[in-house]
C-alpha cells in the first residue's frame, strides 16, 4: 500500500523510488504484482510518466482512508494507554454524591475530557460486588465491607455523624448535644439487611452510651431518611455532609461524644493489581480532591 501511494502521488516510478529510498526496478515489480493480484490496471504507463486509471483512483481513495483509520487507531490506542481516552466505570454510594463526587467529576472532566464516565449507584456491599465482578473499575464505598477477592483500598474522606432532628424538636436549637440525650427518641436508620455496617455502627454507638436505639423506620436512601425525620417519624444519625442537601424540615446538630463509632469514611476500592490508565487517572483526581477537602 505504501509503495502504491508513493507512485500515485508522484506519478513517477523514479521519483517514488527516491522517496522510498529504493531502486526503481523492485518498485515496478511490486506494482505489477499488486495489479496482478487485484486483476486490474492501476496505472497507465507512457513515455512521460504514469497516470492513474479509474480503478487506480478508486484504490488510492480507499488506501488513503485506510491509512487515516490506522493513524486514528494508533492515536486512540496511545491515548487509552496514557489515560487520555477510554472509559472509566465508577460505582458509588449515595453519600459520596452529596459533595465529594461532584467535585471529582468536574476536576476529572476538565483534565481528561476524552475519557467517558459511566456511574452506577448502589450501597456499599453492592459497589464492592460490582468491583469484584469487573462491572466497574473503581468503587466508592463506606467500610467495613468484606471482599471475596483481593482488593486495593484507599481511604479518601472521613466525616463525623451528627444528629438529624425535626425542625420543631426541643433540641433543634442546641449548638451540640450528647448522644445519650436521644435515648428516649424513636430512630430512623438505614436498613439493617442492606446497609448492615452503618446500621451496626449506630447501634454500637448508642449502646456505648448506655441505651439501645428504638429504630422504628428503616430506609436505604439518605434523602428518604431526611424526609422521614422531617415528617416526625424519629431522629437519625447521618454524616455531617448531608447538611448540604438543605432539607427544609430538619436540622443537623453536632454530637459532643468523641466516640470513633461516630465517624464514617469513604474509600476507593479497585481490584488488586494493574488497572487501566484512565481508571488510575480517576483515582489520582479523587485523591487530590479529597486532600484539598482536608
UniProtKB/TrEMBL annotation:
Pfam families: HTH_1 (PF00126), LysR_substrate (PF03466). Coiled coil: none annotated. GO terms for cellular component: protein-DNA complex. InterPro entries: LysR_HTH_N (IPR000847), LysR_subst-bd (IPR005119), WH-like_DNA-bd_sf (IPR036388), WH_DNA-bd_sf (IPR036390). Residues 1-53 form the HTH lysR-type domain. Keywords: DNA-binding, Transcription, Transcription regulation. CDD domains: PBP2_LTTR_aromatics_like. The keyword Coiled coil does not apply. Belongs to the LysR transcriptional regulatory family. This is DNA-binding transcriptional LysR family regulator. It comes from Pigmentiphaga litoralis. The lineage of its organism: Bacteria, Pseudomonadati, Pseudomonadota, Betaproteobacteria, Burkholderiales.
